[in-house]
Design goal:
The chain has 279 residues and is of the alpha/beta class. Helices cover 38% and strands 17% of the residues. The chain contains ten helices and eleven strands. Helix 4 links the parallel strand 7 and strand 8. 36% of the residues are buried.
Length: 279
């Protein structure tokens, strides 16, 4: 597959924005930036919390936002947008009707945000039930953010279920988290390498916050899921964070391990199996 895949993007316009037209224009600008970074496919992942929302309502709002954006970019050469979601992990997901409709496109891959709390066997047991009883394949977003709450062994235990894990480029680049990030790579825990924009509620308004004070448009320059089997030197305008992360892996991981990650398409959702997700 040529080009990158942004697997975790807040590209859809917010339907509750006071100036909806400006929100749509912002989304278009993000897509233009992603296009310049050679991203071919964007998975829109608006946040879903089963405690505060229900699936039909969420899907209706997501579809309306998608329709507005689609009309605005019609005829433009921009990345293809696929609908998905970032779902807050709760035990109630097992009883949530239509949860499969929150997956990426028509697949059974569902992106989950784990709670920021100490590890418990409940997390493991619920993930097992989601996989077996709901026939879903979880993708754990930004796994490095749980190192404060989980030991490396506990993360490995979750990974052993066959779930997919995403590691942020920032975790590799940041010296404070680099050692743990490289260990996650060395232990074959991570399948997706990328970076992600972080949306937080501040003073009642929804804004995007990223380390270093970068704007949402600047964050859009980063690749959230990218084919690390590609030759970086042949890529025009690669993501700066992605390129830095690859460089750091090259100089800090054993050569054999680095080559395995760089050359093994099975380490990430790309090439051979991305077509199963994106078809």
């Amino acid at each position: 597959m040529n080009g990158y895949v942004d697997f975790h993007s807040g590209v859809l316009p917010r339907m509750d924005a006071e100036n909806l037209e400006a929100e749509v224009e912002k989304s278009v600008e993000i897509l233009k930036i992603l296009h310049k970074a050679k991203i071919k496919t964007v998975v829109a992942t608006p946040y879903f919390n089963s405690v505060d929302d229900n699936v039909p309502s969420f899907l209706a709002k997501r579809e309306e936002a998608y329709k507005l954006l689609s009309e605005k970019i019609k005829g433009l050469s921009l990345p293809r947008v696929i609908l998905g979601s970032e779902v807050l992990f709760t035990t109630s997901l097992l009883d949530t009707k239509g949860v499969n409709k929150l997956c990426v496109g028509d697949t059974n891959y569902i992106m989950l945000a784990l709670p920021y709390q100490e590890y418990s066997e409940m997390v493991l047991e619920t993930l097992q039930k989601i996989i077996i009883s709901r026939n879903l394949c979880p993708i754990i977003a930004h796994i490095e953010k749980y190192l404060e709450f989980y030991t490396m062994e506990q993360i490995e235990k979750i990974s052993s279920l066959g779930v997919i894990m995403q590691l942020s480029c920032d975790a590799i680049i940041n010296r404070a988290t680099r050692k743990d990030a490289l260990e996650l790579l060395s232990r074959n825990v991570v399948q997706i390498i990328g970076s992600n924009d972080i949306t937080k509620m501040v003073g009642g308004s929804d804004i995007t916050v990223q380390e270093g004070g970068r704007s949402k448009l600047e964050v859009a320059m980063d690749v959230l899921n990218t084919d690390i089997t590609a030759n970086i030197s042949e890529t025009i305008a690669p993501s700066p964070q992605y390129a830095d992360a690859i460089r750091i892996m090259r100089y800090h991981l054993p050569l054999g391990k680095y080559k395995q990650i760089k050359n093994n398409a099975g380490m990430i959702i790309s090439n051979a199996n991305i077509k199963d997700i994106m078809c």
